[in-house]
Amino acid sequence: PGFVGILIDNCDVPTFIQTVGTGNCEPVVMTLPWLFAGDYIVFVAPSIFEGIGCAYNDYSVTVTLTEVDQPECQAPDLNGTAVVSDDNAQDNDFVAADAFNVLVDTDVNELSVWGIAAFNDGAWVECAGTKSNFIVTYYQDTDGNGCPDDGVYAQYTINDATVMDDGAWGGYTMWRYDMSHADLTLDGGYCYWLEVVGQDEMEDCWFLWITSLYGDLRRLQSSPPDYDCEADFTEGQDQSWCIGYNGSNHLFGNPWLCR
């Protein structure tokens, strides 16, 4: 067994997906990540067939695309990962961030994120309750390199976020944190990074930000003050969040352009 890969190209940023452990000459079914509406070219080349044991000409490709409503939020992945983003975590101040693309000038003043509350002192233990204080930071990517700029675009201290029990995740309570901040205009034509970090009103309790399957499938986790763009990216996962304005969530532009 080996893998079969397919390159999906919208003539701007190509996306590569693959299967793992494909048996000899077996049919392959792949689920594409969330794509925005547009024209795409699908390439299947001999060089991306490895260890299959069948000649390239023995394969045929059928592509079926199903149109679905564009989600307003990057919903939490119930089978995903929870990423530490807290100023108390192991004295290393782990922080996480996620990118999104803004096509036109957009006002924002609300956001929601999903996470769990836990602490690791040799083993993971769920907190009794959860945090409600956060630092929210927006970074801009002005040079288009896929990384946050060194300078902060905007930063807000959130005290007493609205916290809701939103079900279960991996045996833990999944919390939704709703936050508001002053009106902020995101200039169109840039990608931005959203960073959400739990604060220290509960020292023995960390905020772990749940990942998502939506977006550009790339996130950052690092220790301040700087992100190491070569070392800190994790491919295949995004973070779960909504950003909106006065009660209405925004549908942002093609996130693949942020890669």
Number of strands: 19
Arithmetic mean of pLDDT = 76
Residues in helices, as a percent range: under 10%
Please, how many helices? 0
Rg? 20 Å
Order of helices and strands: EEEEEEEEEEEEEEEEEEE
The biggest sheet, with number of strands, parallel, antiparallel or mixed sense and barrel status, is: 9 strands, antiparallel
Strand content: 35-45%
> Globular, elongated, flat, extended or rod-shaped: what is the shape?
globular
The end-to-end distance, rounded to whole angstroms, is 31 Å
Unreliably modeled segments: 1-5, 7-22, 46-53
Structural class, please? Answer: mainly beta
Describe the structure in your own words.
By secondary structure, this protein is mainly β. It has no helices and 19 strands. Strands 5, 7, 8, 11, 12, 14, 17, 18 and 19 form a 9-stranded antiparallel β-sheet that branches. Strands 10-9-13-6-15-16 form a 6-stranded antiparallel β-sheet, with no helix packed on it. Strands 1, 2, 3 and 4 form a 4-stranded antiparallel β-sheet that branches. The chain is globular and about 45 Å long. The chain starts with a strand and ends in a 10-residue tail after the last strand.
